[in-house]
């Protein structure tokens, strides 16, 4: 009786402390700079309830200082953390399951996407910790996947529901994640075994380059609520989202079929620039953003909520943990 009353009181108190305003994610302000791990352990259920309600919650005033402490808080809130596989860009590993943000040019935004939505078991939960905010920009913005789906053109949604989407990748040691960074090994037999087990078509070119193709669902149902969600990385990993000068350079160097990553309709047809523009404009209309402050924590429902990283200036250090894998069979739209 005491336990449930305490949990209920904690949840109610946390809910009252959450501030919401148009264009920003909910922010839970923690008073008096508590000991982070103790606070996380005592407020786990309350915070998780807020994430279930809102899709993403900022926690401000927790004062996270380093990777070790952030990892402890991540595990207290989410349990065990996941190793990343099939990364599209390199990350620095700070501790088991605790990574740097993906390596990406600071002057180029990473548009809205759902982390590892092209895998067979994407993480259901993401945890971010800001150790050093950028001098300007650099927000990790969020967007509600159900609202995005509702605003997209019906015909486009129906096509992606029928066909899914196709991710093509060409691995090299210059742009994006290498084979070893993506698969945790560069042993050909191990990479091929992984691809077969995860429904990834693969081919080795004469020069040793690996190319892969994988078809995934674009619309899924949330495993807890059943709500339909736009869940993919169609826009983010498409050639038309890349800065025009960078895209032109990559095509010149690697050829159109050799781009480090690209997306297509599920039947293999190219996705036009107009479609990518519609997707990104719809995301932008539903984007909520809050500038990072040092010590901030953000917890995100990765199925319900897309996230981005905006362009920035100066040094920026944001850590990420991934947890609670969701088998694709549990969320694929019927």
What's the SSE blueprint?
Elements: H1 2-17, E1 18-19, E2 27-29, H2 36-54, E3 56-60, H3 67-78, E4 93-95, E5 98-100, E6 110-113, E7 123-132, E8 136-137, E9 142-144, H4 145-151, H5 154-163, E10 165-170, H6 179-183, H7 188-197, E11 201-204, E12 210-216, E13 219-221, E14 228-230, H8 244-254, E15 261-265, H9 273-285, E16 287-288, E17 297-301, E18 305-309, E19 312-313, E20 317-325, H10 328-331
Helix pairs in contact: 1-2, 2-3
Compute the number of helices. 10
Q: Under the CATH scheme, which architecture of the largest domain would be assigned?
A: 4-Layer Sandwich
Regions with little confidence, pLDDT below 50 for 5+ residues: 1-7
CATH class of the largest domain: Alpha Beta
Summing up helix and strand content along with how strands pair, one would put the structural category as alpha+beta
Taken as a percent bin, the fraction of beta residues is 25-35%
Explain what you see:
The protein is α+β, with helices and mostly antiparallel strands. Helix content is 32%, strand content 26%. The protein has helices at residues 2-17, 36-54, 67-78, 145-151, 154-163, 179-183, 188-197, 244-254, 273-285, 328-331, and strands at 18-19, 27-29, 56-60, 93-95, 98-100, 110-113, 123-132, 136-137, 142-144, 165-170, 201-204, 210-216, 219-221, 228-230, 261-265, 287-288, 297-301, 305-309, 312-313, 317-325. The strands form five sheets. The chain has an eight-stranded mixed β-sheet with strand order 1-2-3-17-7-20-5-4. Strand 11 (201-204) and strand 12 form a beta hairpin. Helix 2 crosses helix 3 (67-78). It is globular, with a radius of gyration of 20 Å. Mean pLDDT is 92; it is low at 1-7. Keywords: Antibiotic biosynthesis, Dioxygenase, Iron, Oxidoreductase. Residues 1-28 are annotated as: Disordered. GO terms for molecular function: dioxygenase activity.
């Amino acid at each position: 009786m005491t336990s449930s009353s305490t949990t209920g009181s904690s949840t109610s108190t946390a809910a009252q402390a959450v501030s919401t305003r148009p264009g920003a994610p909910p922010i839970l302000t923690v008073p008096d700079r508590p000991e982070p791990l103790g606070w996380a352990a005592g407020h786990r259920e309350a915070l998780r309830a807020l994430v279930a309600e809102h899709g993403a919650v900022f926690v401000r005033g927790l004062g996270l200082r380093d990777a070790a402490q952030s990892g402890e808080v991540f595990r207290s809130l989410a349990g065990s953390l996941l190793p990343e596989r099939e990364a599209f860009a390199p990350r620095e590993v700070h501790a088991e399951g605790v990574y740097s943000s993906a390596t990406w040019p600071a002057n180029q935004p990473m548009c809205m996407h759902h982390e590892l939505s092209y895998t067979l078991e994407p993480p259901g939960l993401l945890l971010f910790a800001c150790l050093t905010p950028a001098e300007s920009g650099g927000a990790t913005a969020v967007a509600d996947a159900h609202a995005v789906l509702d605003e997209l053109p019906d015909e486009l949604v129906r096509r992606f529901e029928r066909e899914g989407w196709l991710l093509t990748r060409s691995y090299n040691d210059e742009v994006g994640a290498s084979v070893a960074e993506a698969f945790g090994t560069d042993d050909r037999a191990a990479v091929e075994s992984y691809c077969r087990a995860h429904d990834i078509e693969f081919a080795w070119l004469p020069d040793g380059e690996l190319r892969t193709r994988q078809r995934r669902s674009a619309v899924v149902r949330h495993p807890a609520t059943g709500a339909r969600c736009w869940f993919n990385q169609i826009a983010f990993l498409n050639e038309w989202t890349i800065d025009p000068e960078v895209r032109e350079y990559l095509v010149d160097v690697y050829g159109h079929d050799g781009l480090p990553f690209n997306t297509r309709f599920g039947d293999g047809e190219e996705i036009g620039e107009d479609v990518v523009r519609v997707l990104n404009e719809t995301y932008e209309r539903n984007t909520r953003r809050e500038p990072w402050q040092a010590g901030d924590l953000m917890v995100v429902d990765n199925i319900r909520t897309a996230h981005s990283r905006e362009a920035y200036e100066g040094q920026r250090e944001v850590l990420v943990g991934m947890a609670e894998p969701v088998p694709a069979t549990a969320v694929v739209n019927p």
